[in-house]
Amino acid sequence: MKHTIIILLLLLLGTCTVTTALKNLALRGKATQSSIRDAPWTGYSAASHAIDGNRESQFSAGSCSNTHPQKDPWWRVDLLDSYIITSIIITIRGDCCAEETTGANIYISDSPIQDWSTKKADGSVTGVSLGESFTLDFTSKVEGRYVTVKMEGHNKILSLCEVEVYGYPAVSVENLALRGRATQSSVYPLGIPMNAIDGNRDTNYDRGSCSVTQDNFSPWWRLDLLKTHKVDSVSITNRDLVPERINGVEIRIGNSLDNNGNNNPRCAVVSHIAAGLTETFQCDGMEGRYVNLIIPGRKELLTLCEVEVYGHSLD
User: Fold this and answer.
1) CA pair distance 140, 137, nearest whole angstrom
2) How much is the pTM?
3) In this structure, are residues 177 and 223 in contact, taking their beta carbons and an 8 Å threshold?
4) From the CB of residue 275, how many other CB atoms can be counted at a distance below 10 Å?
5) 97-149, pLDDT tens digit by residue?
6) Is the distance from CB of 158 to CB of 74 less than 8 angstroms?
């Protein structure tokens, strides 16, 4: 029984670590809303109360935002920069009035929404008990600078006791591969694995900037980013000769070293890259420390003249 409890606690702690790895972006943002509740509640109702880092759900405690009754009231936070949004958590009032939050639509956009008829909601707040928090998780890529919560209808009030926004920066200009370490299944003369992350896209093998394996069955190359990242994209530069060798390469990303990392989830399969050119493959924030390139089920020389990885640390 004691061992069972310990295992359950460890699993719970592991879950908490994953869900809190990203920072609450709303805390750095600026909030506004369509109106503010009239006296005597005006001082309790500011838009900024919903991003004060406090989930206190009693309205009288002064930690909730509240609009005046109106048609289609809204609340918005400007995150000050564009982010890939992974989840939003909204806490509703605990003293009463769940209907002031339940049913509200959530919109993510690059600019403040002017024409609502052209914008489809990215989610809505479904029913939760008084004082509880509703979580909206995004499984596909959702990007934007503004998060807006809007209650549709006439004579409506919108009340929010906390809005938390989790995600990571949408734009990355740093090639993470340059800070990593590379290895591969075997080495052809001059074709050491680090050549593929030297920052040089030179496609002439004789000039020493391409990695090449021996003519092996299922050859692979692996990049260690040294810690877990969200990988947005991987760019591969192909050699100027025999370009067909790259055909069928799988890009795999994850934290496991089982089978040398080649069992990690797959981001993409390279069907073809023209001789001497660079192609980019979107991985949509896949998490992992290791980026593997493997040609499965074929005897081949794996040649890479540059591998670039763009994404963000989970710190």
Assistant:
1) 9
2) 0.61
3) yes
4) 13
5) 999 999 999 999 999 998 888 889 999 999 889 999 999 999 888 999 999 99
6) yes
Asked if residue 197 and residue 144 are part of one domain, the reply reads: no
Q: CA 86, 232, 309 angle in degrees (round to 5)?
A: 150
Question: Alpha-carbon torsion 188, 193, 198, 201, what sign?
Answer: positive
Residue 56 contacts residue 63 (beta carbons within 8 Å): yes
Distance from CA of residue 309 to its chain's centroid?
15
Rounded distance between C-alpha atoms, residue 287 and residue 302, angstroms: 24
Residue 199's identity, in one-letter code, is: G
| Half-sphere exposure at residue 243, Cβ-oriented, CA atoms within 13 angstroms | 15
CB 132 within 8 A of CB 91: yes
What is the domain count for the chain? 2
Chain CA centroid to CA 123, Å: 17
CATH no. for residue 78? 2.60.120.260
